[in-house]
Amino acid sequence: MEIGILGTGMVGQTIGSKLVQLGHIVKMGSRTANNEKAIDWVKSNGPNASCGTFEDAASFGEILFNCTAGNASINALKLANENNFNGKILLDIANTLDFSKGMPPMLSVCNDDSLGEQIQRTFPQLKVIKTLNTMNCKLMVDPSLVNGDHDIFVSGNDLAAKEKVKSILADWFGWKSIIDLGDISAARGMEMLLPIWIRLMGIFKTPNFNFKIAR
Amino acid sequence: MEIGILGTGMVGQTIGSKLVQLGHIVKMGSRTANNEKAIDWVKSNGPNASCGTFEDAASFGEILFNCTAGNASINALKLANENNFNGKILLDIANTLDFSKGMPPMLSVCNDDSLGEQIQRTFPQLKVIKTLNTMNCKLMVDPSLVNGDHDIFVSGNDLAAKEKVKSILADWFGWKSIIDLGDISAARGMEMLLPIWIRLMGIFKTPNFNFKIAR
Q1: What does each C-alpha distance from B40 to B25, B44, B47 come to in angstroms?
Q2: Global pTM?
Q3: Which residue of chain A comes nearest to B97, CA vs CA?
Q4: For B24-54, what is each residue's pLDDT tens digit?
Q5: To 5 degrees, how large is the angle CA A67–CA A71–CA A76?
Q6: Which terminus of chain B has a smaller tally of CB atoms within 10 A, N or C?
Q7: What is the CATH number of domain A2-204?
Q8: CA A37 – CA B96 distance, rounded (Å)
Q9: Of the candidates B181, B195, B212, which has its C-beta nearest A188's C-beta?
Q10: Residue A110 with chain B: CB contacts under 8 Å
């Protein structure tokens, strides 16, 4: 499948590389066509990897991954040009972490809104599915990094798109326990997991842990 | 031990009854000395249970439990009179859930502050330990209601008080896995678990589940 990755950071690189390993054709998009990190990533990922602008990646991908920093996501998606979005699935992985006032970071959006909802409202042509935002990026594509059972959450308004994303999580990335939280407003609760996640990482000194709902 | 419970709702009643069963002497406090729910609770819990005003309960208890609604907690503690607080431990179990705009509820305080921190700031004579707020009240005093391993969080500034609370959770209520998140500012992350908790309860149709950090 042809997939567009928006963002060139660790999350975008990790997911992009996993997708290339799985045999997909991946274009990584950023603000400029000659982003150094994107070019390096292309070099180390072979002929099925390419890069370009946000618009190039959005136009290329049948499915899109939002791996930008949460506070830059809306602008990145505007640059991606909504004319490229016609009914495509966007996996929204971003969190609006704001480190500008020091540690611990705060969320720029929470409680009565979420980034997932903002993106869905701003770009109704996208089928936004919030997922993967509640863990470290290595764990996103390799759940076996954490022992035992643990969970991944999904939320979104389009049921068929959500089923497609669940099958991506299960069949491509290896997730066994996927909890469907309902419509995109559940992105609030998913994004509000970040403050305790960051606190836990500081205590455990490793990002290799994950939420599990015991029942 | 003599214990003061602030609040007469399900949380206060459930914890109060458990403490009486354990042999403690419990006074339940509310806005008025003759609160009907408190009087009914006393009747069904025998001679070691009593009730009175917030001030009566705060003066009576060597240890205090804040089981009021989060948005009423600061006022309840003011009525309890800070002269009764001299160095006492307060287990803060409350959440600032605001249902006034319908479902899902929002938090009145979050992100850059928390109820736990507000209480500690307002009443420096208390040793505030945030705990037990991330689950249903029946589970608070009986972790075996949920299968397998699952976690309870604690945070607070006073290390000795936090150790005392950990022993209360372990020895009185039966908690095996207690995660110490550090100082009281970690109450932000603990209280911000509520939106996803409420969403999960709606999906599972039962409050008998709990967070577990897999690692």
Answers
A1: 17, 6, 13
A2: 0.97
A3: A111
A4: 999 999 999 999 999 999 999 999 999 999 9
A5: 55
A6: N
A7: 3.40.50.720
A8: 43
A9: B195
A10: 110-111, 192
